[in-house]
Design the sequence.
């Protein structure tokens, strides 16, 4: 079974530009999560999809971030326009079941650097 | 806002020594997961504990969930250089599915 994949692995952009991150969850996993780790901080939740619906987007920092999951398969996270403080590692995770003991499987992350 | 305090932040020990990593919170979690992360990779799940007082063993690693489900520990016996990595605890609450992560423990086991 293939794991969670993310693209690109690294992205270096200038302040004001747009970047789109992609996540392909494990096949059959309805739950998809985005997390972010900025320098020196712990990994923090951004949002949660159940299939194509946004279940919880309480962690999205502001309206410069837009996440989509059309068709309930892969997801994209777009940052427009990017700011310096958006630099960090963006992780995607997916899970099959919800409830106690739900296991989230993480992708390798996209390392974003905004100059 | 739930917070998970993880300690120690850094740990450097000699091969063969034992160590314990702690994860504490004032919040109750429905489950708690321990992950290990290597440089350039995402967190890889080691174990999930869901019942207060639960103890799980994974070879030389022993995981414990506190009776009140507010804290957890990871104990490694006879550490080996291959155990080197970033260890993360993460808790989930009953209402939200998001994980709350600790800040991590960077473990270095010297040969």
Sequence:
């Amino acid at each position: 079974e293939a794991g969670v994949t993310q693209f690109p692995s690294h992205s270096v952009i200038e302040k004001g530009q747009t970047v789109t991150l992609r996540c392909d969850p494990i096949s059959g996993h309805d739950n998809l999560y985005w997390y972010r780790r900025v320098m020196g901080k712990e990994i923090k939740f951004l949002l949660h999809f159940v299939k194509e619906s946004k279940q919880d987007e309480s962690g999205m920092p502001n309206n410069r971030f837009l996440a989509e999951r059309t068709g309930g398969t892969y997801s994209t996270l777009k940052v427009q326009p990017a700011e310096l403080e958006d630099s960090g590692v963006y992780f995607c995770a997916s899970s099959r079941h919800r409830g106690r003991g739900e296991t989230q499987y993480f992708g390798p992350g996209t390392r974003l650097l905004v100059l | 806002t739930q917070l998970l305090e993880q300690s120690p932040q850094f740990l450097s020990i000699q091969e063969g020594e034992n160590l314990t990593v702690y994860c504490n919170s004032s919040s109750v979690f429905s489950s708690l997961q321990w992950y290990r992360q290597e440089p350039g990779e995402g967190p890889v799940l080691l174990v999930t504990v869901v019942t207060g007082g639960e103890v799980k063993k994974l070879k030389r690693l022993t995981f414990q969930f506190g009776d009140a489900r507010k804290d957890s520990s990871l104990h490694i016996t006879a550490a080996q250089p291959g155990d080197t990595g970033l260890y993360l605890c993460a808790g989930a609450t009953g209402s939200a599915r998001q994980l709350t992560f600790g800040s991590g423990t960077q473990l270095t086991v010297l040969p």
Observations:
- The mean pLDDT of chain B is 92.
- Chain B touches chain A through 26 residues (CB under 8 Å).
- DSSP finds no helices and eleven strands in chain B.
